Amino acid sequence: MPIVFACAGSHAPGITAWTEKAPREQVDRFVGGYNIVQRELAASRPDSILLLTSEHWANFFLDHIGAFCIGRGESFEGPIEPWLRVGKAIVPGNPKLAEAILHHCYESGFELSYAEELKLDHGSMVPLKFITPEMTTSVVPLIFNTLATPRPTARRCLALGQVLGLLLERSDERIPVVATGGLSHDPGEINHGFIDREFDAEFLSRLEKGDLDRLSAYSDRELLKAGAGTLELLAWICLAGVMAKHKPRVVVYEAVQLWATGVGIVSYAPVAPRA
Amino acid sequence: MSTYGLNKLIRDINRSPAVREEYFKDQVSLLDRYALSVDERQALRSFDIGKLYRMGVHGLILRPFTLLHEVSEPDYLKAIRG
Q: Would the CB atoms of A61 and B8 count as touching at under 8 Å?
C-alpha cells in the first residue's frame, strides 16, 4: 500500500528541557505544529513507524561507526538524558520490519549496519513525545551518522530513501515515515546560538518544491556552514527520497534563539484533519 | 576528536546511569579505567570546560556533560569561547 503518512520535525533538547525559556508565542506555534502532525499520524492508523533519526553519541562512537544503522530490537529504551524532561519509556520495536528493510537494502546496494540494542536519545524521544505520546506505537529507528567524518553524502541519503520507498510502497503494513533533526544549529560548539535563517528558508523551499536534484547536491561543507547540527537534515533529505514525487508542506518554522535552533516541521499529508 | 579516551569517558558518563553514578561518587577509580593523558585527567578533575573543549571534546559530548553539572548556557559558552 502507499506510505500512509510522512513528516519531519526538529528534535532540539530545549524543546522539552527548557521549553519556557522561549517566547510563549513561539512555543505555542511550534508545539501546535507537532499537534497537527500528531493528529495526521494518528489518522493514518500506523502499524509501525520508520524513524529516520540522528543521534548524539548515544550509540555511535569511534570504537565502531557506520553511516546508517537500523535497530531490529524488540524494544528500545530512552531517553538517555536525565535532564531532558521526557519520561523514561520502553518503545516497542518491530524486528520483522527491520529485517525486511535490512534485506531489501542489502539487495539494493545499501549495506546498513544493524543493532539489536539501541538507546534512544532526544533525537528520537523529543519528536516521539509529541507524535506518539503514549509511546506504544512500534518504531524501527534508522540512525544516520551526522557526527564523525566521513559522513554519508546527501546524494546517498536521498538514494537510500528511494530504495526504502520502493519497499514501503509494497508493504502490507501501514508504515508512516518520520525524519527528525535540524534545522540550522551548532549545538555545543563555538557558534552555538547561531541560526542561519536564510539557509533554513532555502532548504524548506527546496523541500516544498520537491527539488530532489538540489537536495541531493547539498555538500557536507554547505550543511556544516549552517552549524554542525544542520547535518541532521540528511534524514530529511532521505525522507524526500522515500516520498519521491510527493511534496511536503511546511507546517511551521520558527527561529528560536533560546533553543539555539531553527525548528521546523513539514508534513506530506495533503490536508490536516480537523481536531 | 583526537582525544579518544577522554571523549569515550565523558560519553560513557552521559549515557550510562551506572558510570554517571560512579563519576559523581568515586571519580579517581573511574578515571583510572580510561586511557587519559596527565593533561586530560587534570582538565577533567578541575572541570575546566574551556580546556576540555580546546583539547577536542566534541560539543555534543561536552555540552550534555556540563548539563549534568547544571552549567548554564552563558557560562558554558563563555568557557568554550574563552
A: yes
